[in-house]
Amino acid sequence: PSEALFHAAEGNYDLLIVSLSLDNFDGLRLCSQARSLERTRQVPILAISDADNNARLMRGLEIGVNDYLLRPVDKNELLARARTQIRRRRYTDHLRDNVQNSIEMAITDALTGLNNRRYMESHLATLAEQASIRGKPLALMILDIDYFKAINDTYGHDAGDDVLREFAVRIRKSIRGIDLACRYGGEEFVIVMPETDLHVAGMVAERLRRSIAGEPFTVDKGGKRITVTISIGLTTLERKGEQVSDVLKRADTALYRAKHDGRNRVVSAAA
């Protein structure tokens, strides 16, 4: 039985059929273990029980057995109940996948794969609250692709999309797993860095700026390579209770200065 549970966890099974009258092993314990493991938690269990074992059968249903058969087992009834449980499992998986896809679509930018503005605005408030409670800094930068309209006008919107996708890839390579990267809209992006002060965030921003400017972007399925630069406005949340909107405005003001001063640069604004 223990080996069977191991195989159930390692394999992609549609149904577990468990006897509640195993020799030298508690079938109920096997069912309970299957329900406690992440890999087998959603796998339906069909229990086989003796007719006079009603108490154990009820206990099995309580711990998550989906259906049961009483001995002597009729082959056709066993096949019918097995098919029913497998159909339900597959239908449930289908519904779960649809829900997960819907959630991902609601919070993800379809073009770049980064989180979208809606997710950023809702999650940023949580990150700011956590930073205030823990007394930790929180850095935020707004990034804007320089002369992006000219890229679209010169090379076409497909090339512009290529640039946005590659830009998102380079962002991911430049930040940590705990950082939040979002497409804010158009050619503007936001990166939120928990537990990061202005000095460290400035080094990250400068490294990202250099990675963009230092390697041309490939567009038109590899047919052209174009130089792209970015401007970055950077600030931090370091005051308890500071409004997230004020932090965004300060970063946006720093971004405006970066563009006004000639683009392809990082400008920091202290809190």
From TrEMBL:
Residues 136-271 form the GGDEF domain. GO terms for biological process: cell adhesion involved in single-species biofilm formation; negative regulation of bacterial-type flagellum-dependent cell motility; phosphorelay signal transduction system. It is an enzyme of class 2 (transferase). SMART domains: GGDEF. CDD domains: GGDEF (cd01949). GO terms for cellular component: plasma membrane. PROSITE patterns: GGDEF, RESPONSE_REGULATORY. Its EC number is 2.7.7.65. Residues 1-86 form the Response regulatory domain. InterPro entries: CheY-like_superfamily (IPR011006), Diguanylate_Cyclase (IPR050469), GGDEF_dom (IPR000160), Nucleotide_cyclase (IPR029787), Rev_trsase/Diguanyl_cyclase (IPR043128), Sig_transdc_resp-reg_receiver (IPR001789). GO terms for molecular function: diguanylate cyclase activity. NCBIfam families: GGDEF. This is diguanylate cyclase. It comes from Bradyrhizobium uaiense.
